[in-house]
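Let's sit down with a protein and look at its sequence and fold side by side. Please make up or recall a protein chain and show it to me in full. Label the sequence line and the structure token line clearly, so we can match residues to local backbone shapes. Go ahead whenever you are ready, and we will take it from there.
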Amino acid sequence: MSDYNKDIDAIANLRAAQGTAWNAINPESAARMKAQNRFKTGLDIAKYTAAIMRQDMADYDADSASYTQSLGCWHGFIGQQKMIAIKKHHGTTSKRYLYLSGWMVAALRSEFGPLPDQSMHEKTSVAALIEELYTFLRQADSRELDQLFVALDDARAAGDNALEAEIQAKIDNHETHVVPIIADIDAGFGNPEATYLLAKKMIEAGACCIQLENQVSDEKQCGHQDGKVTVPHADFLAKINAVRYAFLELGIDDGVIVARTDSLGAGLTKQIAVTNEPGDLGDQYNAFLDCEEVSTADMKNGDVVLNRGGKLLRPKRLPSNLFQFKKGTGEDRCVLDCITSLQNGADLLWIETEKPHVGQIAAMVNRIREVVPNAKLVYNNSPSFNWTLNFRQQVFDIMAEAGKDMSAYDRANLMSVDYDETELAQVADEKIRTFQRDAAAEAGIFHHLITLPTYHTAALSTDNLAKGYFGAEGMLAYVKGVQRQELRQGIACVKHQNMAGSDIGDNHKEYFAGEAALKAGGKDNTMNQFG
């Protein structure tokens, strides 16, 4: 017996035990409402999605073709429509997640208005967005099941037993729109206690996976901007521990932590690490500092000096009071960061790179895997990259190395539309198309995400609509460019009243008041024009 039918029987028994007082309660209606609210709390969601993510990680370890993907979403509606589209086009939500970008929270969800990605937005807005995303995903479940319940009633009324059984099977095997969210906690928004408190709020809202970066919290910069400042490993590991304690306290024992390193593009540190003996973690961190050997006679008032092997070394300190790393050490620092994080509680890695290059990523991952064989990455397929130019230049270099005549191409100007139909452009596009598959196989990338896709798509579609609507096209710009496309492509939102819950509400009213219910979905509802 399905859970749906078990609930009907259980509620029928409850009603019978109440005598006549519950006669107005229809057990099947109550069972339907229960099915439409599968997840009662955010912690229920976190437990459910953590198990999914752990299984996905195991699947990837067994076969790199089983990588996972997500798109960043800045509003619950955007996340909802993404998952509805995935189910419609691909039949399942398996291996598809949501990404919550700190950049988009800062740019789009702060009460201060648009802010740069520097952890200046309210920390509570991060947890609030997680809750909002899951509220909309749960509503997508409710809407889809409501449509199945209506179809079930229609099949019964028509006496179509075969169709009734088919619809009942869809109800019993309904796949939820609720999927894992990888949630960006930036650099932790303060000290480890602050990180722990915010992590708790995020987990309580439903997050099963939290991404934490090794920048200084009060100096945090977007990973694709200059001026990034990292912290010694001990500081970062304390925050990883804080997140793990938050998961354990709330009963999410298999919660996932993504440790992000910005060291590849970060040339500065705010502090010199504590070291107790040569070769320890603090000493390794300090070894990357740009230093000059000095004698006591060379020392100036206020100098900071390190003793390494009996030599006095003065780290280069900038007017900002930050210390500088040696040039060319970024990759080595990244590798050390990653190994250290995995050995101290992190589950996945995030290496912020300056370009999408499978070879560059693989070179670092292979070094990490020499120490931690099952190391896996979450990778940002960033809109900050000029994908077209990057891959055309990569292909240009490959063709040049192969001895091809490249005199027809200007490497610095390969973005030009003049090259769109060339062999080089076609090869580059194919490499972009297969980038995720190739990087999953060759560079240990378990999860591919795009941080800001819906930010860009919203801007592009709004620009196109505004151009026509406020120009010569007028209303045709909307009808031809939006509504007609919705109808022809089967976009559910063409019935926006239904998407907002109107039909669910009507059915509930009928549960509550029977024939006396005042419903919105009658013959005069203009939504009926859409069939």
Observations:
- The chain has two domains: 42-289+325-460, 471-518.
- Residues 42-289+325-460 form a domain with the TIM Barrel fold (CATH 3.20.20.60).
- DSSP finds 19 helices and 14 strands in the chain.
